[in-house]
């Protein structure tokens, strides 16, 4: 192992070469000592020109390495990055972000100063940025950024306001609690979620400290293709599915009986679905298409909860 490498920035990427190029452009300009950190990009079966982008940047900057992961899935790619990385601090970064030059040093400084080794996960602030157009009014509740704090602070309650696209984890943490759960997270174009949430909860339940640094902010690009009604509906639908998967996994790990809990979820979200659909019908009368779409998107979330709960109730693993 090259002991000079202290920090590994890991990017899992899939078919986002245009955004990846912008991410790498801002990443190589970080105000951080060269020779002490590396950039490791995991190409997760991309079929666009991602490979040519990686070859170009690898030739420009010796800190950049790329690895091809043939098993598709963000969690699998992140885990491959952890195994391939050399730094004692790993930083997980999305492939569609824009960074300020001070981002990296601001994010990792608290962990570098954590001589007691108490910090298990430290996340920064993610600000949603819309390069193509403004968010439609009906979509804003699902895409707006809510800053938790502008400063460094310890977090004590789940769910934590941290995402896997702006998150630092010391290497010793993986030895203690394991890596990302491969049953969660996006798989190609199937946008499941919660792999980062589950990992952070696992760290917290193991007695590790969870911290947030609002000063380590970045812009997360959301193109117009992800702001259509169908895209946001599917986002909420899969968010509901992912929530049930994560909670069911936790109950099984704790030896809890899941049948009654699943029945409760099905009843509750069926009622929620009915309420949202009635609300959508009500907006037709007053000609408010924006509110109509908002109700339907919320109904999509309830459908996701119901679908995944039924899957487990009927014997799915």
Provide a count of the helices. 10
Main sheet attributes: strand count, strand direction, barrel closure:
9 strands, mixed
Name the CATH superfamily assignment of the largest domain: Spore Coat Polysaccharide Biosynthesis Protein SpsA, Chain A
Low-confidence stretches: none
* Rg, Cα atoms, Å: 20 Å
Q: How would you spell out the order of helices and strands?
A: EHEHEHEEHEHEEHHEHHH
What structural category arises from helix and sheet content?
alpha/beta
Question: Would you state the CATH class of the largest domain?
Answer: Alpha Beta
Question: Quaternary arrangement of the chains shown?
Answer: single chain
How much beta, percentage-wise? 15-25%
What is the CATH architecture descriptor of the largest domain? Alpha-Beta Complex
Strand tally = 9
Count of domains: 2
What share of the residues lie within helices? Answer: 40-55%
Mean pLDDT: 91
Overall 3D form: globular
- Our measurement of the CA-to-CA distance between the termini, rounded to an integer number of angstroms, reads 39 Å
């Amino acid at each position: 192992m090259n002991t000079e490498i202290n920090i590994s920035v890991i990017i899992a990427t899939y078919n986002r070469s245009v955004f990846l190029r912008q991410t790498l452009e801002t990443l190589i300009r970080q105000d951080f000592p060269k020779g002490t950190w590396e950039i490791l990009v995991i190409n997760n079966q991309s079929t666009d020109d991602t490979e040519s982008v990686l070859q170009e940047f690898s030739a420009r900057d010796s800190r950049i390495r790329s690895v091809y992961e043939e098993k598709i899935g963000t969690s699998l790619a992140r885990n491959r990055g952890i195994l391939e990385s050399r730094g004692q601090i790993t930083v997980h970064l999305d492939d569609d972000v824009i960074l300020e030059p001070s981002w990296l040093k601001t994010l990792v400084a608290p962990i570098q100063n954590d001589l007691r080794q108490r910090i298990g996960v430290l996340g920064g602030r993610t600000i949603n940025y819309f390069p193509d157009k403004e968010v439609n009014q009906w979509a804003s509740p699902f895409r707006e950024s809510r800053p938790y704090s502008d400063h460094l602070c310890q977090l004590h309650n789940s769910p934590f306001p941290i995402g896997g696209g702006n998150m630092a984890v010391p290497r010793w943490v993986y030895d203690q609690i394991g890596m990302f759960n491969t049953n969660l997270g996006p798989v190609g174009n199937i946008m499941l979620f919660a792999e980062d949430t589950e990992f952070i909860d696992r760290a917290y339940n193991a007695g590790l400290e969870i911290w947030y640094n609002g000063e380590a902010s970045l812009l997360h690009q959301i193109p117009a293709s992800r702001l259509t009604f169908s895209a946001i509906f599917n986002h909420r639908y899969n968010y509901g599915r992912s929530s049930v998967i994560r909670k069911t996994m936790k109950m099984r790990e704790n030896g809890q009986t899941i049948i009654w809990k699943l029945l409760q979820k099905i009843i509750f979200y069926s009622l929620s679905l009915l309420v949202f659909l009635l609300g959508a019908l009500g907006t037709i009368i007053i000609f408010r298409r924006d509110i109509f779409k908002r109700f339907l998107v919320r109904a999509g979330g309830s459908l996701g909860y119901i679908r995944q709960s039924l899957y487990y109730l009927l014997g799915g693993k």
